[in-house]
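User: Can you recover a sequence for this backbone? Please restate the input before giving your answer.

Assistant: Of course. Working from this structure:
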């Protein structure tokens, strides 16, 4: 499912126009991104938690030259699935 399919299905399920549904979906995603930029967690009970994780610097190897390089520390988005979501996927 892509974003347009999500908007279509939510629109059909709620009876809200596709244009208004698209605004809601976009606003929701924007708010999740803004919260993560502020280093806050976003938790949807039963679905899961979006959070920012710190990835430590590490040593890597250039695949072309074999030279050892240092990969700098970085922040990456992470998602931890909630129990209801995990149970639904198991079925």
């Amino acid at each position: 499912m892509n974003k347009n399919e999500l908007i279509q299905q939510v629109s059909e399920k709620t009876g809200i126009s596709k244009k208004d549904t698209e605004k809601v979906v976009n606003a929701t995603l924007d708010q999740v991104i803004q919260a993560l930029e502020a280093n806050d967690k976003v938790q949807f009970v039963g679905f899961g938690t979006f959070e920012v994780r710190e990835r430590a610097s590490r040593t890597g190897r250039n695949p072309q030259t074999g030279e050892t390089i240092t990969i700098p520390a970085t922040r990456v988005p992470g998602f931890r699935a909630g129990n209801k979501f995990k149970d639904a996927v198991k079925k």
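That completes the design. The CA atoms of residues 50 and 79 lie 5 Å apart.
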